[in-house]
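Deviations from the work plan: none for this task. Representative record:
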Amino acid sequence: MNSLRRILAILMKELTQLRRDRLTFGMVVMIPFIQLLLFGYAIHTDIRDIPVALVDESNTALSRILVQTIRATQVVEFTEHYSSAEEAQNAITSSRVRAALLIPHDVSQRLVRSGAVGMGTPPATDEETSRPVAHWIVDGSDPMIAAAIKGLRNMPLTELFRQSTNRKTPTFEVSLFFNPEQRSEINIVPGLVGVILTMTMIMFTSAAIVREQERGNMEMLITTPVRPIELMLGKIVPYIFIGLVQVAIILGLGHLLFNVPINGGLWNLFGITLLFIGASLSLGLVISTIAKSQLQAMQMTVFVLMPSILLSGFMFPYEGMPEAAQYIAEILPATHFMRGIRGVVLRDATLADIQDDALWLLGFMLVGLVIASLRFKKRLD
Amino acid sequence: MTERIVEARGLTRSFGDTLAVDSLDLSIEKGIIYGFLGPNGCGKTTSMRMMTGLLTPTAGEVEVLGTRLPGNAEKLKRLIGYMTQVFSLYGDLTVRENLQFVARIYGIGARACRQRIDELLAVHDLNRFSEQRAGSMSGGERQRLALAAATLHRPKLLFLDEPTAAVDPETRRQFWEQLFDLVDDGATILVSTHYMDEAERCHRLAILENGVKRADGTPRQLMQEMGVNVVEIEGTGLRTLRKELISLPEVVSAAQLGARLRVLVSDSVAEPDQWLRMHSLLNDAREIRRARPSLEDVFVTSTGRHRE
């Protein structure tokens, strides 16, 4: 009873302080809002309009039609025109363009003999038919850009001669569930919940205990009968509500602006989010008991935040990482939450379907709370 | 025999190589104001923190209200109040909110809490400020709030760490009146200060220097037993006179107070005023008379700072 009263006392105090701290209060709303807009509009994995250069050595009607056909794919945009391959290469080096298309002077002959045109098998030697039509020089340092241009390699050229496309039967039939239009927002918005919660929740709580120390309030608190666990609980409960508000903002706006479906049950969503908020908050508390100043707490928050963004599967698929990175990712609460919330929001998974991740988050939260309470000493030495 | 509230034996605390408190023996009876007098950094705060259980002593032990420290300090925390040297309540909460917070932490029920807060606001003359944020109040007002918060749960033993360090004399006077009221209600108070006039108000006091207790007793006792006589010399050329006198082994200290020179002469000299008159420099017509000893004299003699 008394214990509950003390937790409530700290909780009310935190809420009052938070309400008066205009900047922090504004951040609670503005961080999810702005980051959602930023990431939602900015992050696209399907690449378009890569600036490229054109070196047209043939300069014939056919070469111009070829360029038009490539332009129609919208993958690249010809921003520069050069007369030699060297100039094009210099342009790539000075990053004016990401790639250059070299059209050889005999492009017409190459075209008619090319298998890609599909004019039947011309009477020619293998060497002649296997010659490509033109040549791409690509700045291969960015694999995503390189892959996009490599995608043009097998571009059908039948349209060039106004022939109907030969319908080929694909080897596999692929059915895309849950995101048939392949929009990256659908994958990003639920993941963004994890990133923003990692950032704000750990940041708020990691500063919580340190701030009391910096402002001298701790000396008063530790001469009162308050127990460490009561202090910890009273400090994190207000932030649970804040976290839920942020989730509502991100998913609500994501639904309105980016048409991200919320297929899963709200209770499942509530459950997995609550577990993740709890895990992040208890991690923040542990940081708070280690850091000596708010600046140190902030540095440690960033230390956790970076791998949470890069390794959790938010930006790059978990499966693509080497084994060692996967182990690190498994430690982070964000990784488990990414899987969980994408499951719930996009695939209508229930908590039972994602129980491994849910249990892990629960365990992380409890261990974190215990460590923070044990580390917190009601002494000054 | 009177009840002992605090009983310290050989209490020692070091931080790295520096010895902050060196084997402090202390005995505080119930119902008095006990003063810790000493310059900054003499170990007053460290001693208090050890007695409240905030710091673990390097050596020695202390029994506070029947609880032996180092040991489980938690049950002690309901019985003591501690007013820290630096304001430790919340600047972004109002006076009433701060008091409410403390009351809830001590588990005081809602009704009793409201009653007690109203009472404290009245006693400490804080009614006008009840809805004002603590951070925007003056030093004196803030200290009144801190005292109200420290006494909210009616502690048996109250630790006040330099409570009036940045407070004007008028507020200080009122503050001390409050302390005597608290003692009248049965509390025992341990207060640290570096003001002589404040120390004089204490029932008993201990003089600390560099972590060592130099003297303790009632102010009157200390003044009687300090082993020096006080002589005041009035006249001109006091600066040169002071230099002359301070080199004499019998003179413990000489300090100028306006047109007078206050000289502390060891009591090995039977007639200090006569003895001074015989001194070569004093053959002109200067007025020399014995003066009543003050606590400052005690402080100067016992801390050995007079040779500086």
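The interface with chain B takes residues 2, 5-6, 8-10, 12-13, 16-17, 20-21, 215-226, 378-381 of chain A (CB under 8 Å).
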